[in-house]
Fold this protein.
Amino acid sequence: MNHVETVGLISDTHDHLPSIERAVALFNEHDVDLVLHAGDVVSPFTARAFSGLHAPFIGIFGNNDGDRVHLQQFFADIGTFHGDPYMDVIGGARVAVTHVPELASSLAVTHDVVVYGHTHESVVEDNDALVVNPGECCGYLSGRHTVAVLCIPDRRADIIEL
Protein backbone atom coordinates (compact mmCIF):
# COMPACT_ATOMS: atom_id res chain seq x y z
CA MET A 1 0.00 0.00 0.00
CA ASN A 2 2.57 2.51 -1.13
CA HIS A 3 0.30 5.17 -2.65
CA VAL A 4 -1.73 5.75 0.51
CA GLU A 5 -1.40 9.23 2.03
CA THR A 6 -4.71 9.94 3.78
CA VAL A 7 -6.37 7.36 6.01
CA GLY A 8 -9.76 7.45 7.71
CA LEU A 9 -9.60 6.06 11.25
CA ILE A 10 -12.71 4.76 12.98
CA SER A 11 -13.46 2.58 15.98
CA ASP A 12 -16.25 1.42 18.23
CA THR A 13 -19.12 1.91 15.80
CA HIS A 14 -21.32 -0.52 17.79
CA ASP A 15 -24.06 -0.71 15.13
CA HIS A 16 -24.85 3.04 15.28
CA LEU A 17 -25.94 3.37 11.66
CA PRO A 18 -26.47 7.18 11.53
CA SER A 19 -22.91 7.76 12.77
CA ILE A 20 -21.46 5.17 10.41
CA GLU A 21 -23.22 6.88 7.50
CA ARG A 22 -21.85 10.28 8.59
CA ALA A 23 -18.36 8.82 8.94
CA VAL A 24 -18.53 7.28 5.46
CA ALA A 25 -19.64 10.64 4.01
CA LEU A 26 -16.84 12.46 5.84
CA PHE A 27 -14.19 9.98 4.66
CA ASN A 28 -15.47 10.32 1.10
CA GLU A 29 -15.41 14.14 1.36
CA HIS A 30 -11.79 13.97 2.60
CA ASP A 31 -11.01 11.61 -0.29
CA VAL A 32 -9.22 9.16 2.00
CA ASP A 33 -7.17 6.43 0.35
CA LEU A 34 -7.97 3.81 2.99
CA VAL A 35 -10.18 3.31 6.05
CA LEU A 36 -8.89 1.48 9.14
CA HIS A 37 -11.42 0.27 11.73
CA ALA A 38 -9.95 -0.46 15.17
CA GLY A 39 -12.65 -2.92 16.23
CA ASP A 40 -16.17 -3.28 17.58
CA VAL A 41 -18.18 -2.97 14.39
CA VAL A 42 -20.44 -5.52 16.16
CA SER A 43 -23.08 -6.72 13.65
CA PRO A 44 -22.68 -7.84 10.06
CA PHE A 45 -25.69 -5.78 8.91
CA THR A 46 -23.59 -2.62 9.27
CA ALA A 47 -21.85 -3.58 6.02
CA ARG A 48 -24.67 -1.84 4.16
CA ALA A 49 -23.77 1.50 5.82
CA PHE A 50 -20.06 1.00 5.10
CA SER A 51 -20.71 0.00 1.47
CA GLY A 52 -20.74 3.66 0.40
CA LEU A 53 -17.03 4.04 1.10
CA HIS A 54 -14.96 5.11 -1.89
CA ALA A 55 -11.80 3.71 -0.28
CA PRO A 56 -10.77 0.19 0.72
CA PHE A 57 -11.65 -0.92 4.27
CA ILE A 58 -9.46 -2.86 6.68
CA GLY A 59 -10.89 -3.80 10.05
CA ILE A 60 -9.75 -5.77 13.06
CA PHE A 61 -11.95 -7.71 15.40
CA GLY A 62 -12.79 -6.12 18.74
CA ASN A 63 -14.12 -7.74 21.88
CA ASN A 64 -17.76 -7.19 20.82
CA ASP A 65 -17.36 -8.59 17.30
CA GLY A 66 -18.85 -12.01 18.03
CA ASP A 67 -20.06 -13.09 14.59
CA ARG A 68 -16.68 -12.97 12.88
CA VAL A 69 -17.59 -15.37 10.07
CA HIS A 70 -20.56 -13.27 8.96
CA LEU A 71 -18.66 -10.00 9.39
CA GLN A 72 -16.07 -11.30 6.92
CA GLN A 73 -18.79 -12.50 4.55
CA PHE A 74 -20.92 -9.33 4.66
CA PHE A 75 -17.87 -7.07 4.26
CA ALA A 76 -16.25 -9.16 1.50
CA ASP A 77 -17.05 -6.56 -1.21
CA ILE A 78 -15.99 -3.64 1.02
CA GLY A 79 -12.76 -4.86 2.58
CA THR A 80 -11.19 -7.30 4.98
CA PHE A 81 -11.17 -8.15 8.67
CA HIS A 82 -8.09 -9.37 10.50
CA GLY A 83 -7.10 -10.66 13.90
CA ASP A 84 -5.71 -8.27 16.47
CA PRO A 85 -3.22 -6.68 15.96
CA TYR A 86 -3.06 -5.89 12.25
CA MET A 87 0.35 -4.69 11.03
CA ASP A 88 1.39 -3.48 7.58
CA VAL A 89 3.44 -0.86 5.77
CA ILE A 90 0.99 1.80 4.57
CA GLY A 91 2.19 4.81 2.63
CA GLY A 92 5.75 4.04 3.66
CA ALA A 93 4.87 4.02 7.38
CA ARG A 94 4.87 0.98 9.62
CA VAL A 95 1.27 0.92 10.90
CA ALA A 96 -0.30 -1.23 13.61
CA VAL A 97 -4.00 -1.39 14.47
CA THR A 98 -5.28 -2.92 17.70
CA HIS A 99 -8.44 -2.86 19.76
CA VAL A 100 -6.42 -3.42 22.94
CA PRO A 101 -5.20 -0.15 24.49
CA GLU A 102 -2.60 -2.00 26.56
CA LEU A 103 -0.83 -3.08 23.35
CA ALA A 104 -0.45 0.45 21.96
CA SER A 105 2.73 1.40 23.83
CA SER A 106 4.57 -1.82 22.96
CA LEU A 107 3.49 -1.57 19.30
CA ALA A 108 4.76 2.04 19.26
CA VAL A 109 8.30 0.75 19.82
CA THR A 110 8.40 -0.90 16.39
CA HIS A 111 5.83 1.11 14.38
CA ASP A 112 5.49 4.65 13.07
CA VAL A 113 1.72 4.84 13.59
CA VAL A 114 -0.42 2.92 16.09
CA VAL A 115 -4.21 3.05 15.99
CA TYR A 116 -6.25 1.62 18.84
CA GLY A 117 -9.83 1.56 20.10
CA HIS A 118 -11.88 0.12 22.97
CA THR A 119 -11.69 3.06 25.41
CA HIS A 120 -14.18 5.21 23.44
CA GLU A 121 -11.91 8.21 24.16
CA SER A 122 -10.16 10.10 21.38
CA VAL A 123 -6.38 10.45 21.74
CA VAL A 124 -3.57 11.77 19.56
CA GLU A 125 -0.05 11.44 20.96
CA ASP A 126 3.10 12.03 18.93
CA ASN A 127 6.20 10.69 20.62
CA ASP A 128 8.40 8.06 18.99
CA ALA A 129 5.27 6.91 17.16
CA LEU A 130 2.03 8.68 16.33
CA VAL A 131 -0.54 6.95 18.55
CA VAL A 132 -4.21 7.57 17.73
CA ASN A 133 -7.50 6.48 19.17
CA PRO A 134 -10.23 7.96 16.95
CA GLY A 135 -12.68 7.71 19.84
CA GLU A 136 -16.15 6.29 19.58
CA CYS A 137 -18.08 6.67 16.38
CA CYS A 138 -21.22 5.47 18.18
CA GLY A 139 -21.24 8.18 20.85
CA TYR A 140 -22.73 5.82 23.45
CA LEU A 141 -20.36 6.53 26.35
CA SER A 142 -19.11 10.09 25.80
CA GLY A 143 -21.96 11.53 23.76
CA ARG A 144 -19.32 12.48 21.14
CA HIS A 145 -19.34 10.79 17.73
CA THR A 146 -15.72 10.99 16.55
CA VAL A 147 -13.41 9.64 13.88
CA ALA A 148 -9.94 10.73 12.77
CA VAL A 149 -8.22 11.54 9.50
CA LEU A 150 -4.56 10.59 9.33
CA CYS A 151 -2.16 12.30 6.94
CA ILE A 152 0.81 9.94 6.71
CA PRO A 153 3.30 12.30 4.98
CA ASP A 154 2.64 15.04 7.57
CA ARG A 155 2.53 12.55 10.47
CA ARG A 156 -0.65 14.22 11.67
CA ALA A 157 -4.04 12.95 12.80
CA ASP A 158 -7.06 15.18 13.32
CA ILE A 159 -9.99 14.10 15.47
CA ILE A 160 -13.26 15.09 13.82
CA GLU A 161 -16.64 15.18 15.52
CA LEU A 162 -19.46 13.91 13.32
Remarks:
- The mean pLDDT is 97.
